[in-house]
Design brief:
The structure is a homodimer.
Chain A lengths: L13 H25 L4 E6 L5 E5 L5 H8 L4 H7 L15 E2 L1
Parallel strand pairs in A: 2-3
Antiparallel strand pairs in A: 1-2
Chain B binds a DNA duplex through helix 1.
Chain lengths: ~100, ~100
Amino acid sequence: MGRVKLKIKRLESYSNRQVTYSKRRTGILKKAKELSILCDIHIILLMFSPTGKPTLFHGERSSIEEVIAKFAQLTPQERAKRKLESLEALRKPSRNWTMI
Amino acid sequence: MGRVKLKIKRLESYSNRQVTYSKRRTGILKKAKELSILCDIHIILLMFSPTGKPTLFHGERSSIEEVIAKFAQLTPQERAKRKLESLEALRKPSRNWTMI
DNA sequence: AGCCCTATCTATAAGTA
DNA sequence: TTACTTATAGATAGGGC
């Protein structure tokens, strides 16, 4: 969608990967938000920049735990039992996150 | 991106939400795949159709467990210890999933 | 319920300052 | 580099089968 048609393969230049990530991150986040609103659905988008910085998007209706539990088709009982223990770390503050 | 500019709000009609979901799902999956390849990054996209059918995309380099563990900044040791127990259900077969 | 079409809107690759 | 611009490629809303 630019001046030139890109081949979809790993960009050679690191700085190019950063610039492209930055631009496309904005775009895909917008798409995820629009989709979640228009169609009233649960959605999770989790991605890492080339430098390793994570971005998490989830719809307004749901936390990441809820969506993943839904995906795993856990019953509420199972969910409570397991407590989605491994995901609790996601709630720890003071991380280099972008949470949306 | 169509004949008319859509207002980004919940679509009134259920059938319309389904149709729009189907179209935009294709689009956002393509974006996720392109981003993961171009920028050589980890990414997870998990979404549910209006009927509740889940779709999971993850880059070729990583499983959902790996990406989420990375996000949670678990060490390999922690990861092994916890075994990401709650996510094991994701591996169960014969679900109504689209895994990509 | 899909699957094509295409006018129209949107994202973005390079370019520019 | 940090934005901003814009020509162009890409996504999609509504319509037709």
